[in-house]
Amino acid sequence: MKIGVPKEIKNHEYRVGLSPASAKELITYGHEVTIETGAAAGIGLSDEAYTKVGAKISNSAESIFAESEMIIKVKEPQPHECKQLNKGQLLFTYLHLAPDPTQTELLLESGVTAIAYETVTGPNNSLPLLAPMSEVAGRLAAQAGAHCLERAQGGCGVLMGGVPGTEPAKVLVIGGGVVGQNAAYIARGMGANVTILDRSIAKLRQLDVEFAGKANCVYSTNEAIERYASESDLVIGAVLIPGANAPKLITREIISKMKPGSVVVDVAIDQGGCLETSKATTHQDPTFVVDDVVHYCVANMPGAVPQTSTYALNNATLPFSLSMANQGWQKAVQQDPHLLNGLNVHEGKLTYKAVADAQGLDYIDPASLI
To answer: Is this structure's pTM higher than 0.90?
Structure first.
């Protein structure tokens, strides 16, 4: 199979769809891998790192889109990339379609078959291709939040861990999944006073054991969100409904009651955000202020640490890339219902229900198409 990897073009996005090790693995199985020149420069790798393992280098993203049977990316294709996709091609990347009707429309028009990393499932309702980036984003959320709390960044000037004789920052994490757990882990490690809200009693019990009682694990209600948010210096939104728009758990009214100079980090912004006041930002211009509350809503947070993120992502995606390359995507999804759950778009049809519901579009059961 001809596999192409274009350079990512989203603002300050330095990750790459295939590492040299992943490319070598695919080449070992007889596949042809082409990388756009400079695609891995952001993680400190030259084109030579790919040619050494047998990959080809292309000077043109257009030729990669035109000639590849499978395109492996990291972030969702930008509009002019969508217009280069064609029927019969397979796109394997993060899509986050629910809050993005423009991308959805363009992918449907292209006729491409698109499998989204974020909706591929695993045992026990896990999301194995989302998990590594959720781990990175969660850990970054505490780090970014701590930076935004600095007075020069518009924050109230509170140090996460405080010092002897002063109080540490109060941090609220909404959602105890992979993002929330990792955010709480870093915030607690920095010495902050951490509260985690979640609606699963089983999850709260698990977190209480893992944090050995050093984080407050509280059942999430609207009243609890409002109370803890109004008292917190940093709020991290870490909620997820797979493939769907994130619920708006923090209202504009709650924001208005938060302390001046407090910070909110909305990790759910890829799925539309869990704050009514959220709007997607970039690493170039990451924050804005509403009611004296600093909002950090960068839509590709793991792109800030592309070396860690690229290798963590490749570790998770490679088995699926190999399966589809070796068997063809149709046979691969027939044999693996978890991979089938990743199918979002196929030849002009929308095949993921949460996206269809979010945008009021027709939904086709993917099982009926294979």
So the answer is: yes
